[in-house]
Amino acid sequence: MVARVRLSRRWGSALVAALAIAATAGCKRKPPPEPAPAPAPVDHLAPNEVVEGKEKAFALPLPRHATVTGKFDTSVTVRSPLLPEELANFVRARVKEGNVVAGGAATTFEDVVVPAEPQRRLTIEVRRPVLTGDARSEMTVRDTTPPPIEPNLTDEERWKKAGFGPDGKLLDPKHSQ
């Protein structure tokens, strides 16, 4: 029996040593987790996308760095550092309805609507600038909204209000346009 006790103590000592080694091996510090990839910024631009500026021509937003060179009751003129094709694409993305006439000298958007102001009709012409300077394109935005129709007027009264007689002749030739 004595031999059994010695074996048991050896086994016990070996078991305690094995447990101590296993316990210290498990206490190693875990490596820190790898950082997650940073998400793309929310305001990331698409290729060839042009940023809107703070200026507007009627309800049409203008591109950043565009300069309003004239503002009148029915038209706004703008100069831009964008190429005419880039400016036309900027406008195309922000208007609806109407017709687009692309020519060699200009691109014209006829009878278009800006969604922010759907009751207003615009004609927009984008072209190369006459005077270059720092601008690479020019744009004229015209308000072509027809005047409201007065329902209770006769045809004769409408002609007179427009400055014409019932026969289609000017009432006052000195004030012709």
Please describe the structure with a list of short key phrases separated by commas or semicolons.
about 180 residues; 3 helices; alpha+beta
Task: Annotate the secondary structure layout.
Blueprint: H1 2-26, E1 52-57, E2 60-63, E3 67-71, E4 75-80, H2 84-92, E5 99-102, E6 106-114, E7 117-127, E8 137-143, H3 155-161
Antiparallel strand pairs: 1-2, 3-4, 4-8, 5-6, 6-7, 7-8
Protein described:
The protein has 3 helices and 8 strands. By secondary structure, the protein is of the alpha+beta class. Strand 5 and strand 6 (106-114) form a beta hairpin. The protein is elongated and about 130 Å long. The N and C termini lie far apart (132 Å).
Write down the overall geometry: elongated
| Alpha-carbon distance between the two ends | 132 Å
pLDDT < 50 stretches:
none
How large is the count of helical segments? 3
Strand content: 25-35%
Major sheet strand order: 3-4-8-7-6-5
- In terms of quaternary structure, the protein is single chain
Give the integer mean of the pLDDT values: 79
Provide a short characterization of the protein structure.
The chain has 177 residues and is an alpha+beta fold. The chain has helices at 2-26, 84-92, 155-161; strands spanning 52-57, 60-63, 67-71, 75-80, 99-102, 106-114, 117-127, 137-143.
